[in-house]
Amino acid sequence: MSLYLPLIIHEISVLNRLKFYFDEYFSDATKPATRNLFLIIVNILVLDSFHSAYFANGRVFSKLSGTSLNAYYYTLKADKPGHES
Hints:
The chain has one domain. The protein is built from 4 helices and no strands. It has helices spanning 5-23, 31-47, 53-64, 69-77. It starts with a helix and ends in an 8-residue tail after the last helix. 15% of the residues are buried.
């Protein structure tokens, strides 16, 4: 068993618990918008800030998902989660 396996399992567990907690706040959003908003929250927790979607994509988003940068711009532009602007 790898030395890093318990750390990876713990990291996934923490992300799943955070996602479960924040899902209720995005109940009106589509699944992609919910995922993007959750990753924005994770970015804020990890980096203690949110400078821009471009900055976050290079530091956090690209490591956690395969979603394009434009998807985050679209999510942030919408007037309501999961709705058109």
